[in-house]
Amino acid sequence: MNGSFFFDKSKKTKTLNMWQKIWVSHIVGPTPNSHISIKPLLIPLFKGKKLRTLLHFPSMKAQNLGDETWNLIIANCRCLRALELNALNLKTIPRSIYKLKHLRYLDLTNNHGLKILPKSICKIQNLLVLKLDGCFQLEELPKKIENLVNLTHLAYRGCFGLTHMPRGIGKLTSLETLSRFVVDKDGSHDGADLSELSGLNNLREKLKIINLGFVKNAKEKFRAANLKEKQHLVSLVLKWNGGNDDDDKSLEDLQPHPNLKELCIRGWRGDAKFPSWLSLLTKLVDITIGCPSNFKHLPSFAKLPCLQQLKISNLTELECMDDNGPNGRQGITEPFFPSLKVLCLEYCQNMKSWWRTTEAIGDDSNEDDMTVMGTWTKAFPCLSSLEIENCPLTSMPLYPLLDDKLKLVNTSSRPLKQTMKMNITSRTPSSSTSSLPLSKLKSFHVENIEGLDTRILDKWLQHQTNRRCLSLFDLPNLTSLPDKMRCLTNLQMLHIQEIPQLKERCRKEIGTDWHKIAHNPDIRL
Hints:
By secondary structure, the protein is mainly beta. The chain has seven helices and 22 strands. Among the domains are: about 25-160; about 440-525, no CATH class. It has helices spanning about 15-20, 65-75, 220-225, 365-375, 415-420, 455-460, 515; strands at about 35-40, 55, 80-85, 105, 130, 155, 175-180, 180, 205-210, 235-240, 260-265, 285-290, 310-315, 340-345, 385-390, 405-410, 425, 435, 445, 470-475, 495, 525. The protein starts with 14 loop residues before the first helix and ends with a strand. This is Disease resistance protein RGA4.
């Protein structure tokens, strides 16, 4: 039989990361206490009475595992501890699977046609890990799931067909992985409510709660979820997905533990107030707030010491980012987003100013204001990437130290113009030398920016020798390429689109502006 089995040296089992109690080694043939990886068609050819681990051999073409093969596995491999049968087009799992009573690890990922799991699977009381990721058509988790008393990892990412959670899931107090908690929209499935999250305080990594807009008795149920006791959670996603917009559904009642590092809120349509507990989440690294909501302004995120990524999108009612204005004519005099690396603002059509009050910012013609701007060197000291798209933002903190990516689409050019006028001090404490704003920027994408013409762009590009990627889209006032294009000696990609007046001027070899860009290795017109 040795020649019938396939040793897969490339398969570094990812199961070790998730379930460290199983050590899977691939060998040539079945021996006592063995672990093998095999093609499903060869399963009928062996008897593995003492086989502990069975992994199907990966192939380019998915294979269906028939009832006969299932019966052979169950009859001949009663000592199995780990069974991995992913991407095999499985549509059903036999009820007799409960006879694999020693099974601790079951991987059924990416079986796209699998809709239902047999109730009998809940009799495998030694099961520690159940993986169902990518089973898109899975309609529900098995009833009586509370009988899997030892279950620590229940993974079902990508199972978008799930309509509810089974009652009793809250009894699985050893759970460390729970991919998402789906609220039953209309109650027709007799699913679990949020109170079943109350005792699941060993949950780790990421938890998504879906359909919050459909929760009945929201104030009571939100508090019963007991999120503030889940100290091991790293990431929390709260999604409303429609439902009723009433004052009973308050974010204030979904307070997480202060250890949280990532927070995502999508589709909140209740009151326009942001919860007071945000200031307690001092370890937050990533904040995402998106989808239509009633937020008109947000609390200040500027003093969160660890925040590295902030993404705000589709907040159609949002008028400003921060309730508190800058400190008068002194500008920003204390650390402002001290750790922020990525800032993304998208589709907030009513947001015209960063602050509710903007006395510190005058119009572009006021040179004194430009002097004040130059003192705001504490703003965004670590910012690497800034994207502003479809937000008419005319005033905001300036960003002269930005050093990687700048993307501006259908927004005001005013903050950029002000930034380019600044004098900034070197980041190195021991140095007092000044450098030009945005001189270290590597990628610049500008699209549909009113008033951006050849003269202005020429001035901006004068000292941008580090630029590697430049994208110019839909700029009707750009009648020719600036002469300073020849200074971009490190440019690796130039992308020009929806600027018909440049088409002829940039024609290879013969265009009027070709000599300005001929040195670029990748030109896309």
